[in-house]
Amino acid sequence: MEADWEFEMGGDAQAIETQWAGYVDLRISPDRAWRLPEAAQLPALAEILAKLNEASSPVWTSKCDVWLHLEPDEFSLDEMDAPDGCACAMGCYIDLLHRNDRQWAVPDVAAADCKHVCSLLSAVPLRCCRVDLVIRRAFIVPEEMNLGITAYLTACGRSDAEAAVALQAALEVFAGALCGHSTLE
Asked: CB-based burial of residue 125 (10 Å sphere; 0-12 exposed, 13-18 middle, 19+ buried)?
């Protein structure tokens, strides 16, 4: 599985907000993930969101979105280790915050965690998908800046159905690596 990470924190870079209109705290009730509009678009996402928000998970989620159709200029077959002919692609993102809200207060710790997760993912022989982890500012409470990670997952296939299967596999591998990642605890 292809995986990479980067920092995106300067100037006009996006930030993770947890106090946005429509926010559903899945930590309180992870089974509410199946009622999210994004889960209706990509049912595999609900299971992963529930897993990432369980009390035993080292992270929790604040926002996600799904793109059911990516244009050809929005993905690269080489970056997903995909064979020629994979013309259909889709993706999603998940904003992640550490269960211990202060854990990623230092950029070096967030970078080390991303490097480790990427090494776990890269060891999995899964083609036609990738994960990009972006470390960015996070506002868990409005006046306090911390760090969070946005995980972008993309997958491709010869059809929309193949791309959906590849994205589901990528989500499962990602959640497994993250939840089994002992340095996050």
From this structure: exposed
Phi-psi region of 130 (alpha: psi -120 to 50; beta: other; left: phi over 0): beta
Helices and strands (H and E) in the chain: how many: 4, 6
What percent of the chain is helix, strand and coil (3-state, nearest 5)? 35, 30, 35
Asked whether the predicted pLDDT for residue 172 surpasses 50, the reply is: yes
Beta strand pairing status for 129-141 and 16-17?
parallel
Burial of 68 (0-12, 13-18, 19+ CB in 10 A): middle
The pTM of the full predicted model, rounded to 2 decimals, is 0.94
Nearest of 41, 68, 65 to residue 160 by alpha carbon: 68
